[in-house]
Amino acid sequence: MGYSLSVENISKKYDDFYAVRGLSLRAAPGTIYGLLGPNGAGKTTTIRMVMNILMPDEGQILVFGEPMREALKRRIGYLPEERGLYQKMKVYDQLLFLAQLKGLTPARAAQRLDEWLARMQFSEWKNHKVEELSKGMQQKVQFIATVAHDPDLIILDEPFAGLDPINAHLLEDIIVDLKKQGKTILFSTHRMEQVERLCDHICLVNRGTNILEGPLRAIKQQYRKNTILLEYQGSLAFLEGDPAVRRLDDFGTRAEVRLTEEADPHEFIRAVVARVQVYKFEIVEPSLNDIFIEKVGQSHA
Amino acid sequence: MRNLWLIVKREYLQRVRTKGFIISTLLMPALFAALFVVPIFLARMQTGEPKKVAVVDETDALYDALVRAVEEKADKERPQFLLSRVDPSPDGEALERRLREQVNGGQIHAYVVIPADILQSGKAAYHGKNVSNVLELRTLESTLNNVVITRRLGEVGMDPARVKAVIGRVDMRRIRITREGATEDRGQAFIVAYVMVMVLYGSLLGYGMTIMRSVLEEKSSRVVEVLVSSVRPSELMFGKLIGVGAVGLTQTALWSVVALAFSWYGQAMASAVTSAGMVKVDIPAGLLGYFVVFYVLGFFLYGSMYAALGAAVNSEQDAQQMQIPIMSFLIIPLVLMMFIINNPNSNLAVGLSLVPFFTPLLMFMRLCIQPPPVWQVLASVLLMALTTGVIMIGVSKIYRVGILMYGKRPNIPELVRWLRYT
């Protein structure tokens, strides 16, 4: 099966400034793809090019294996970063309008909306005007508008921003559910713990270019397991000046030790066990957060 | 096409349902009523109760003639004045004091003093609480005037009826010749032209600004990004233009119906009151057709420019400044209106009415006053359609870039650069 979305080496230039430069990504059906990057990295520009709102100056975008064209918009659901709804319109009228723009018949749209409103626990609000709703509630309306037409490719720009933990959890469940139905979900976020929990694939963008792309597992394995958590009794003073230690955060009975790339964690633990009383130790993967900061830092250097 | 229709429908229904639309649609006819019907209605009410006016006739010869004249002039059922005779007194001051008290006390409305030498001096005096009721004063004055002149003529041995026949005024009727024939005009062509041009101007400007606000609202509420993920920006812009334009046509159509009904009612009332011949104000169907043509073309021309303006700026304050050039295109024809009415076929009028930005108002003005040659009308419509097409292509590019641009207000070179973005 081909990719739902494949972006090949696209660039977008505004006067002398490249908003996106040589960016590529590929998202397969039934996967969740995380688009990460600091503010102003070019994520929104990329998404707009995928949505045919902007045209790339170079490169090409294939959606469901075809060059992007207007008719394919109906198979895509898009939740923009800046939420936008008509403030004076009623929730239901608005959703009906947006769903019809995606090609649903009024009857089909009404049926889908009833299902989604029930699922999002939002039916009681459907006759309220949008301006009467809180930000988090508007977000739920916006999400329903994104998925009501049963799109195969769902693009979510910062979907969790502004949601309380209960609703964030509800949304996570729905996203995983959509993935199980074989949908492709592309989402951008700053929240690393959600990426680690949800994403199969990630693409790290900085300054318009992807600096890291691939399956999350592979990326994390690529970064060696070189951080060790210790619970101990005694003194770790002997580690000061050890060439294998890159960084030591000692909290008295708990410590986090980051080793250099060359050091062998197993050897290091044997050495520590010989000197102090160790109750517990764990060799942990680097967090995505660490990778993110490291890669972005490198690309700025 | 389906999307375009959905956008048009939403835009139209959302607008027609607003309180603002309903109020402004009802308010105009209400103003119309206030301007035309109410005064006539009030005038009738006023005459319902005759006013008591005391007359001190020092000549002792004119009172009876005056009473007769007032009765002749008045509507038989509702005499405007009820005169009463007060004998002049040697003690003029005491008499006047007494009459003043009666005026203040409300027993009489006013009193008129006709001095003994009125035939020579031609002077009389009206004493009342209200001396600003011009219509009432004029009626009384001209009645007295007629009485005095008749008396003077009698004294020099002339027959008032013959004199009246001799000095009878010449009445020149105005017959307006059109290709369809000729119609009598009592100034209604001017009024129709004026009202229709003003409605056209108001609709183009008002609904242009409505477009601008609507684009700005979609931009600042960020709903535009959701919309362009479903439809082309150009579909969105055309949908908005057609939807808002249709709202404007709906409103104008409603106004026309109400205005015609009121003017018919007003005429009927006016003819009943003044017994003047009925003035027939009918708006020729051809003119209404031209109104629609120039409204639609003008609306697309100005509406699309306003749409681009709304897309380019981020706040209404910014828009206010930048709309001045657009607005001035609409105001210049109004400034020229009197000139065009006096010289509808001058070179300047012909030339300017062919300039597409001025065409909707100027050509329509000329059509109202004196139909220009057919080729000029066709040429102006064609030129305007072409210009509107070109402007719309440019404007849809600015719109497409502008709706997703936030931040500082762009200047003209930046707008030009937007035209080149793809």
Structure, described:
The complex is a heterodimer of chains A (301) and B (422). In chain A, the strands form three sheets. In chain A, strands 6-7-8-3-9-10 form a six-stranded mixed β-sheet, sandwiched between helices. In chain A, strand 1 (5-14) and strand 2 form a beta hairpin. Chain A contains nine helices and 14 strands. Helix content of chain A is 33%, strand content 30%. In chain A, helix 2 crosses helix 3 (106-119) and helix 2 packs parallel to helix 4 (135-147). By secondary structure, chain A is α/β, with parallel strands linked by helices. With 422 residues, chain B is an alpha/beta fold. Chain B contains 18 helices and six strands. In chain B, the strands form two sheets. A four-stranded mixed β-sheet of chain B has the order 2-1-3-4, sandwiched between helices. In chain B, strands 5-6 form a two-stranded antiparallel ribbon. The relative contact order of chain B is 0.09. The mean pLDDT of chain B is 83. The A-B interface holds A 15, 48, 51, 53-55, 57, 70, 73-74, 76, 78, 80, 82-89, 97-98, 100-103, 142, 145 and B 2-3, 6-7, 10, 14, 218, 221-233, 404, 417, 422.
* Biggest sheet record of chain A: 6 strands, mixed
Number of strands of chain B: 6
Give start-end ranges of low-pLDDT stretches of chain B. none
| CATH top level label of the largest domain in chain A | Alpha Beta
The coarse silhouette of chain B is elongated
- Largest sheet of chain B, described in full? 4 strands, mixed
Strand fraction band of chain B?
A: 5-15%
The main sheet of chain A orders its strands as 6-7-8-3-9-10
Order of helices and strands of chain A: EEEHEEEHHHEHEHEEHEEEHEH
Topology, number of strands of chain A: 14
User: What is the mean pLDDT of chain B?
Assistant: 83
